[in-house]
Design a protein that fits this description.
Elements lengths: L24 H5 L8 E2 L2 E2 L1 E2 L10 H14 L9 H21 L7 E4 L2 H16 L5 E5 L8 H10 L2 E5 L9 H7 L4 E7 L11 H9 L5 E4 L11 H4 L3 E5 L10 E5 L1 H6 L10 E4 L4 E3 L13 H17 L1 H20 L4 E3 L9 E6 L4 H10 L2 E2 L1 E3 L4 H7 L4 E5 L6 H17 L2
C-alpha cells in the first residue's frame, strides 16, 4: 500500500515557545500532583493522554469533599446530606450543559463513558428505528467502541454497515461519504477526532449533509472535548458523547448529549430505581428526562468530579488549551519526523493531540518498554482501532498524545528516549 510522506507543513511551529502570561504551563503542571513523581528514577513524562488524562488537585479535592462532607444518595432523601449531594450532582449536569452549549440540562445524560453512550443510542434509538435492509454509516478511522455496537445492531436487525474510506494522510474522503448517503441511511456515527491518527473530521459538514436527507448523526467526542471548543447547537449534532477521564476528570463517568426530541422518543436503556415515575405489577410509567436513562444509584462522585474538571478546563480557557497543545504537537511532529527510520501514521492537514508513528524495524511494544525505563509513558498497540492499522499496513504504532500540561521539554525527552531506543537496537 502506498503511503503519504511525512508531510506536516500545516503543523510546523514558528518562533519560540509561547510565553503568554494567560497560559503558564509550568503553573498548570503544579496543579497535577502525579506529575511530580519519578519513574525508574527519571522524571515522569506523561504522553498517554488519549488513553486517559491525569487529574488536577481541584478534581481530587471535589471527590474527597463529597465523601467527607456530603456522601448520600441523590434524588431520594429529604435529609440535608441527600439534598446537598443532589444539588452537587445536578450542578455538574448544568456545568456539562454549558460546556457543550446544550439547550437544556435534561439533554445531558450521565453515563459510564463514551462507550456506554454509543451503546445506549444503539440499543434504544437504533433498535427502534432500524429494520432489515437499512444502513448505518461510520468511517474507517473509528475506535472499536464506534464500530462493534453498530455491527451488533446490524446483525440483529439485518441492516448493513457502510464505511467511509480515508486517504493516505488519514483524512476522511468526504466525496465518498456523500455517495454513501441515501434513502437506506438511518444513522451516521463518526468520531470528531481520531484517537489513532489525531485527524479532526469536518463534523459540521458531515452533519449538514446527513440532515439534508433527514438522517441523524452521533458524534464520538472522546478525543475532541478535551482539546477544542464544542458547541452542539452550532454543530447541530443529534447525539454527542465524551468521557470524563479523558478531560481530566474521574473514570467511570461520561456524558451523552441528545436532542430532547430524540431522547423523549427513545425507550429506557436499563430498568431500575429513579428511572420510573410509577411501578405496579401491571405497568410501569417511566420518569422524565434525564432520569429515564439513569437507572439505579448513579456515579455521584464521578459526576461531581467531572463538573470540577470542566470548571478547571473552563478556567484555563479552551482557546488557550487548544493553542498550547497545537504548539506542542507541531514541535513534536517536526522533531520526531526528523529521526532516522521514523514513519508518521496520520499526517492530516487538520489534526490535534496525537502523534502516531513507527520506528522501523523496531516493534512499537519494544519502543514503549524502553521509553518506560526512561520515565516516558506512551501508548503502543492498535489503540482499539485495528481497521486503521490495516489501512496503513502496520500491526501497531507508537502513540504520543498530548494534554494541557505537556511541554516542549517533554518532547525533547521523547526524542532523547527514541534515540536511546535506536541505540539499543543498533
Amino acid at each position: 500500500m502506498t503511503t503519504a510522506p511525512n508531510t506536516y507543513t500545516d503543523l510546523r511551529p514558528s518562533g519560540p515557545a509561547p510565553t503568554d502570561a494567560g497560559y503558564d504551563v509550568r503553573r498548570v503542571r503544579r496543579d497535577f500532583p502525579i506529575l511530580a513523581q519519578k519513574i525508574h528514577g527519571k522524571p515522569l513524562v506523561y504522553l498517554d493522554n488519549a488513553a486517559t488524562t491525569q487529574k488536577p488537585q481541584q478534581v481530587l479535592d471535589a471527590i474527597a469533599r463529597y465523601y467527607s462532607e456530603d456522601n448520600a444518595n441523590v434524588h431520594r432523601g429529604v435529609h440535608l446530606l441527600s439534598e446537598r449531594a443532589t444539588e452537587a450532582y445536578e450542578r455538574a449536569r448544568t456545568i456539562a450543559q454549558n460546556f457543550l452549549n446544550a439547550a437544556r440540562p435534561e439533554e445531558i445524560i450521565f453515563v459510564r463513558g463514551t462507550t456506554e453512550a454509543i451503546n445506549l443510542v444503539a440499543q434504544t434509538y437504533g433498535r427502534r428505528n432500524l429494520a432489515a435492509g437499512d444502513e448505518i454509516i461510520i468511517t474507517a478511522m473509528e475506535h472499536h467502541s464506534n464500530i462493534v455496537p453498530w455491527q451488533m445492531l446490524c446483525e440483529e436487525k439485518g441492516a448493513r454497515l457502510r464505511v467511509v474510506p480515508i486517504n493516505d494522510r488519514g483524512e476522511l474522503q468526504l466525496e465518498e461519504y456523500e455517495k454513501l448517503l441515501g434513502p437506506k441511511t438511518k444513522l451516521v456515527a463518526m468520531g470528531h477526532v481520531s484517537n489513532a491518527l489525531g485527524t479532526i473530521n469536518p463534523v459540521r459538514r458531515i452533519i449538514e449533509l446527513a440532515h439534508q436527507q433527514g438522517v441523524p448523526v452521533l458524534v464520538d467526542g472522546a478525543q475532541a472535548a478535551p482539546r477544542m471548543k464544542v458547541d452542539v447547537r452550532e454543530l447541530d449534532a443529534d447525539f454527542y458523547a465524551f468521557s470524563g477521564h479523558k478531560i481530566y476528570g474521574p473514570t467511570g463517568i461520561g456524558v451523552l448529549y441528545g436532542k430532547a426530541s430524540l431522547l423523549e422518543a427513545m425507550p429506557p436503556y436499563q430498568g431500575g430505581g429513579d428511572m420510573i415515575s410509577s411501578v405496579t405489577f401491571e405497568k410501569t410509567l417511566y420518569n422524565k428526562l434525564p432520569h429515564k436513562f439513569e437507572a439505579g444509584t448513579p456515579h455521584m462522585e464521578g459526576a461531581i468530579g467531572l463538573g470540577a474538571a470542566l470548571d478547571y478546563v473552563n478556567r484555563l480557557g479552551m482557546e488557550n488549551i487548544t493553542a498550547h497543545e497545537q504548539d506542542v504537537l507541531a514541535y513534536a511532529t517536526e522533531k520526531v519526523a526528523a529521526l532516522p527510520g521514523v514513519r508518521l501514521i496520520g499526517t492530516a492537514r487538520q489534526k490535534t493531540g496525537v502523534l502516531s508513528f513507527v520506528l522501523e524495524p523496531i516493534h512499537p511494544h519494544d519502543i514503549g518498554t524502553i521509553l518506560d525505563q526512561e520515565g516516558i509513558a506512551i501508548r503502543t498497540g492498535h489503540h482499539c482501532a485495528q481497521p486503521v492499522m490495516l489501512r496503513f499496513g502496520v500491526p501497531a504504532t507508537a502513540r504520543a498524545s498530548f494534554g494541557l500540561y505537556n511541554t516542549r521539554e517533554d518532547v525533547d525527552a521523547l526524542v532523547r528516549g527514541l534515540n536511546r531506543v535506536r541505540e539499543v537496537f543498533a
